[in-house]
Each structure stands twice: as C-alpha cells, then as structure tokens.
Amino acid sequence: MKTTNAAVLAAGIFSQYAAGHSIFQQAGSGSTDFDTKCTRLPPNNNPVTSVSSGDIVCNVGGASASASGICEVNAGDQFDVEMHAQLNDRSCSNEAIGGNHYGPIMVYMSKVDDASSANGSGDWFKVDEFGYDASTKTWGTDYLNANCGKRAFKIPSKIPAGDYLVRAEAIALHTAGQTGGAQFYMSCYQVRINGGSDGQLPAGVKFPGAYSASDPGILIDIYSADLSTYQIPGPAVIDSSYF
Ligand SMILES: *[C@@H]1O[C@H](CO)[C@@H](O)[C@H](O)[C@H]1NC(C)=O
Ligand SMILES: [Cu+2]
What we know:
It is built from three helices and twelve strands; from the N terminus they run αβββαββββββαβββ. By secondary structure, the protein is mostly beta strands. It has one domain: Coagulation Factor XIII, Chain A, domain 1 (Distorted Sandwich), CATH 2.70.50.70. The strands form three sheets. Strands 3, 4, 6, 7, 11 and 12 form a six-stranded mixed beta sheet that branches. It binds 2-acetamido-2-deoxy-beta-D-glucopyranose (NAG) and copper (II) ion.
C-alpha cells in the first residue's frame, strides 16, 4: 500500500493493523514452535522509515520492551523467523506481507549480556539475506509469501555460547524511488545459544549507522532499475567458516 499521512490516519480509525504492512512475530527451530514468546513485538504493523532513528534497531519501543521469554537453541541449529500482516494470524492463505511490498529480507545477530534487557546498542553481524533473484524474478518478500511467512537460517556453529538478540528485517521498496520512501519492518528476538565455540565474534555494524537513506538498495525505483544488480543493504553475510 502506498501510504500518505491521511491514509494512515484514515486506516487507523478502522484497524490498528494497516493493510499491506506487516510484523515479524513468531519464531521456531525446526519442529519446535516458539510462537511469540521471545519476540519484542512492535506496537503495530507500521514501518520504520528513518534509517537514523533509534527505531531502526528493534522497531518502536523495541530497545526496552522485553518479550516474555527467551528462545533457547543450540549453535548450528536451524532458526525460523516468521512474518505476518496481522498480529497472531498465521494463516498461510493470507499474504505474509502483501500490497506490492517488494524487497529484501535479512537477519542479523548481536551478542548481549542478557537478552531480556539488552537495548541493541552493540555490534550486529548478518547471518542471512535474500535480496532479488533475477532468474526467477523473486524478491525476499516473495519468498516469505510463498513460505507462509517463514524464513529459516542456520545459527552459526562457531560463535560463543550465550545471549543474543536476533533482528529479522524486511524492506519494502514499492515507494523507495524517493528519499525516505523505503519501509523497514523489523523485530528483535531474545535468544540464548547453547554449545557454540570459544571462537571470536564476527565483526559487526551498529544500528543506526549500518544504512544510509541513499544506499543503492534503499533509494531505488524498482520499477525502472536493473534489478539483476540489486545491492542488499548492510554488510555481507558473515564468512561461511562461522557456520
Ligand atoms: C544501551 O545499553 C548499553 C550497554 O548496557 C549502555 O551502555 C547504553 O547506555 C544503553 N543505551 C541507552 C540509550 O539506554
Ligand atoms: Cu505500505
């Protein structure tokens, strides 16, 4: 949905959850379903639009809002993040993120002392991304819609055990041809990793800071750009030797 302030206000009268927008909300690990127990849920499904705002870290209120629990997994396990347009509507017949909200999806992690209270000010390293596959004309958000909102990735095997925040993000680019038009949808999950290694943490980036409003993957008219060269925002995924 192309939103204007008037449209947002009008939609707000009818629903807290505007059409076309979305929230990363559930998590899992293979056959284990954590539902939303470790998710710092944002107050609604509206996007963050400023890359320099503190909201770019873990969404509105996400730096302090603490989830009810912590999701425990082992290093090297599969982890699943799950996005849906409406809170707690996990129906696979409804699009995870609809309304032409095309764009990349990515997952970052940040080592913290205590996942239930950390504010996300540490360094974030990228563990997964899906931008645009030109051969199948598939965006990361198309991938979510084809997989009931779920994206699975591998928790690196060779990172230290302990608490982490996991930051899942989709960027909708349907109105990104003008500065500030890209829509950022992210949620942070409180995760504890058992096992792991004594190895060093990968280098990371800060939020805010990792993105600029003029990055080629953020300020882009996807209707006229050569998408075969689409550049996913942020750093590269960490080296395969960590996995
Ligand atoms: C975030 O947490 C760090 C580490 O505990 C702390 O140094 C910093 O002051 C906190 N930032 C805010 C805005 O609370
Ligand atoms: Cu929208």
